[in-house]
């Protein structure tokens, strides 16, 4: 179960990373992100997408650590951060569910649900 959850979370984070990179380079997919107000993101939101990519890498490293793939998974800071990440995805569910953008609401809410569930499994490991 842990391996499936970890793999699923990593695949989703990789897909989100590719999505954010596409937004950074001007792909007309803005309706799926950042409230959906822009078809092509303005510079300030592209910077936000850069920050997202960095965060996704950190999330992946955290989950890999907690799952025992890389060192440190039993450290208290890793355990706590994994629960913080779970809470972050739960908040993401709520925020995406109330998005004004139907495209964002119908795509990113389920993504956050899956990430929250898989992160919970990893956090419990």
From TrEMBL:
<keyword id="KW-1133">Transmembrane helix</keyword>
<keyword id="KW-0812">Transmembrane</keyword>
<feature type="transmembrane region" description="Helical">
    <location>
        <begin position="105"/>
        <end position="124"/>
    </location>
</feature>
<protein>
    <recommendedName>
        <fullName>Integral membrane protein</fullName>
    </recommendedName>
</protein>
<feature type="transmembrane region" description="Helical">
    <location>
        <begin position="77"/>
        <end position="99"/>
    </location>
</feature>
<keyword id="KW-0472">Membrane</keyword>
<feature type="transmembrane region" description="Helical">
    <location>
        <begin position="45"/>
        <end position="65"/>
    </location>
</feature>
């Amino acid at each position: 179960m842990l391996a499936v959850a970890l793999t699923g979370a990593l695949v989703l984070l990789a897909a989100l990373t590719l999505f954010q990179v596409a937004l950074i380079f001007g792909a007309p997919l803005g309706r799926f992100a950042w409230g959906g107000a822009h078809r092509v993101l303005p510079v300030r939101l592209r910077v936000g997408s850069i920050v997202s990519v960095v965060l996704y890498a950190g999330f992946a490293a955290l989950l890999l650590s907690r799952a025992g793939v890389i060192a440190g998974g039993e450290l208290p800071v890793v355990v706590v951060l994994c629960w913080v990440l779970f809470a972050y995805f739960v908040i993401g569910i709520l925020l995406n569910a109330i998005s004004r953008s139907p495209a964002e609401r119908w795509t990113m809410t389920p993504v956050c649900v899956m990430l929250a569930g898989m992160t919970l499994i990893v956090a419990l490991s």
